[in-house]
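Regression check, zinc ion case 129:
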Amino acid sequence: MHEYSVAAELVNALLPQVAAVDGQIVGVILKKGEMRILSDHSLISAFEMVSEGTPLQGARLIIELVPVSVSCLTCGYQGAVEHVSDDAFHFSVPILTCPKCQSEVEMKTGRELYVDRLTVRTPMDTDGG
Ligand SMILES: [Zn+2]
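Current build output:
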């Protein structure tokens, strides 16, 4: 139920912003790093549960995956890592190595978890045809 607490935090953080929005929130676009061990499906249903009875009720949680990218301090390589096995994702935090020189690398992206933007339906949108 880790997803549930994540969703609760998300909704709590969003509510003050949502209060200032003139219109109906129809979508919440969440950026999720590839390294985040969170089930999209559980996160979406937790979000629906938590947002019930709030102005976010009915909004769709849309999860956009942020791929892992690294920077190597040894050879200067920057970019994606070749492949991280699914097993590593599920059982431990994988140690990432440089695809060029096999040194340990610094992770630049892949741990994100933040709301990127909101989709709002304003009354104006429904006026013209
Ligand atoms: Zn390297």
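Comparison notes: The longest strand covers residues 24-33. The mean pLDDT is 88. No diff flagged against the previous build.
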